Amino acid sequence: MRLALVRTLAVFASLLVFSLVAPVANAAPGPDCACPAPSIDGLQQWLASGEGTTVPATGNLLVREGHRYAAKVTFLNAEWHVAVVWLGNRFEAQADLSRSAGFRLTYRATDDLYVQLRPASHWSGGDKWLTRVPSTGGKVVTRFFGFSPRNWTSLPELGTPPYSFASALSEARGLVFVGKTPNRLEFRGLRIDGYRPPCA
After folding, report:
1. Does position 111 have pLDDT exceeding 80, yes or no?
2. Does domain 38-192 sit in CATH 2.40.50.100?
């Protein structure tokens, strides 16, 4: 009896130790998990769309700076330019930001520009909800942009959005930076309250 009890306790102890050290197959990655591809705060797709004269003209804007990455683009000429960030790291993805307070942007800009919130159902065209991104005079600054509807508007030149700002938040596909003046831009951080981009 005593020997059987000792064996039972030994088996129980070994199972307990295994459960503590064995990996869980479906465990979600921890908060410090980083995407293997280059990114800024987990956002991997920073793209020059080919709209307007920009340097680079197309392709990913990410460049390595030490142990981090920055997205750099230059707008040339007095015409509309477009630089895109896919929130889900692929075009088909979308994010529900309806409960998000907004996003914190670390950037440098030599002139004012705008950022549009583009939903999946109305991706194309200029008639989008947008907010002004002020010039930093070429210095790197961090600013918070809230998702309160009173902070977002549209431009007559680009058209009035045929959908509500609330619907854009619920199916956000990307943040699109647009400007009509020459501008040297660098983005170093973009953190969205309550949202973590999935790795592509």
Report:
1. yes
2. no
